[in-house]
Amino acid sequence: MKRIQDFSVIDTIWLNSSSYILILKSERTLEKIEPGNFAEIKIPDTSDIFLRRPISVYDVDHDKNEISFYIKAIGKGTNKLGSLLPGNKVNIIYPLGNAYTPVKNKNVLIVGGGTGIAPFKLLGEQLSSLGSRVTYVFGARTSEEIVLSDIFSKFGEFNCTTEDGSLGEKGLVTLHSVFNNIKDFDIVYTCGPDPMMKAVSKIAEDNNVRCEASLENMMACGIGACLCCVTPTIRGNAVVCTEGPVFHSTDLKW
Amino acid sequence: MYRRTSISLNRFKMVDLQVEIAGLKMRNPVTAASGTFGFGEEYADFIDLDKLGGIFVKGLTIKSREGNDYPRMAETPSGMLNAVGLQNKGVDYFIDSIYPRIKHWNTEIFPNINGSVIADYVAVAEKLNEVKGINGIELNISCPNVKEGGMAFGVSCTSAIAVTKAVRKAYDKTLIVKLSPNVTDITEIAKGVESAGADSVSLVNTLLGMAIDAKTKKPLLSTITGGLSGPAIKPIALRMVWQVYNAVKIPIVGMGGIMNGNDAIEFMLAGSSAIQVGTANYIDPQICEKIVDEIEQYCSINGITKVTDLIGGLITD
Question: N or C: which terminus of chain B has fewer CB atoms within 10 Å of its end residue's CB?
Answer without folding.
Answer: C
